[in-house]
Amino acid sequence: MRPASPLRRILPPIVAVALFFLAWEVGCLVLGVDEFILPRPSVAVAAYFQWQAAIWPNALQTLFTTLVGLALAIVTGTLIGALIGYSALLYDALYPLLIAFNSIPKAALVPVFVIWFGIGTLPAILIAFLISFFPIAVNVATGIATVEPELRDVLRSLGASKFDLFIKVGFPRAMPYFFASLKVAVTLAFVGSVVAELGASNRGIGNMMVIASSRFDVPLVFAGLIVVALMGIALYAAFALLERRIVNWAYR
C-alpha cells in the first residue's frame, strides 16, 4: 500500500478546522449571539491583533511554565514508570498511590501551593507537572510490563538477565507508549498552567484572561484561548514528528 501524500494528510484537518470556525461564525450571526456571551471568531481574531503586544508576553510565560512542568513530568514519569514496570513488587505497591494521587483535583492544590510558594511562576509549573506526570508514568510502566512472556522465556533461555530484558526489550517496547503519553501530557500541561495562572500567578494567559474578564472583554479572553490552542497544536505536532522519527518501526 502506498503511503498517503503529505497533502492528503494535511488537507482534512485544515478543512475540518475551517468548517468549524465557519459554523461558529455563521451560527453566531444567524442566532444573534451577543459578543459578551460568545464572540465570533472574526471578533476574537480582531481582539488578538488589537492586543497582541500584551498577549504574546503572557503567552510566552504560559509556554515557559508548560515546558518546564512537562520536562519535569517527562523525567519523573519516565523514571517512576520504568521502576514500576521493572519490578512487580513496586507495581503492586505504588500503582494504587499513583491512582489515588491522580484522583485529587489539581485545581484544589493551587491555593495550597500559593500558601507554600506564593503567587508566581512556581505554582503554575508544579500544577503543569502534576497534571501531566500520571499518563507518562502509567504508559511507560505498561509498555515495560507487557513484554510478551514467550519473548522473555526465549531470551532467558539464551542467558539474558532481567536487567538485559529491561534495557534491550522492555524499554524499547515502551517507546510507542511513551510518545503516545507525551501527546496527551502536553495538552494536559497547558491546562494545568492556565488553571494555575487563573489564581496563582501575576503573568501568563490565565492571568490575562482574569483581567480581561474583569473588564468584560470576552473577545480578548477567546483570543487568549485560541493562542493557547495553537501553542498546544504546535507542541503536539512536534512530538508527533519526533515519534515518527524515533519509533517509526512500531507502526505499519
UniProtKB/TrEMBL annotation:
Chain ranges passing through the membrane: 12-33, 63-86, 177-200, 220-242
Pfam families: BPD_transp_1
Membrane topology type: Multi-pass membrane protein
GO biological process: transmembrane transport
GO terms for cellular component: plasma membrane
Record has Membrane as a keyword: yes
Keyword Membrane appears in the UniProt entry: yes
Subcellular location: Cell membrane
Keywords: Cell membrane, Membrane, Transmembrane, Transmembrane helix, Transport
Family listed: Belongs to the binding-protein-dependent transport system permease family.
Entry protein name: ABC transporter permease
Organism: Candidatus Thermofonsia Clade 3 bacterium
Taxonomy of the source species: Bacteria, Bacillati, Chloroflexota, Candidatus Thermofontia, Candidatus Thermofonsia Clade 3
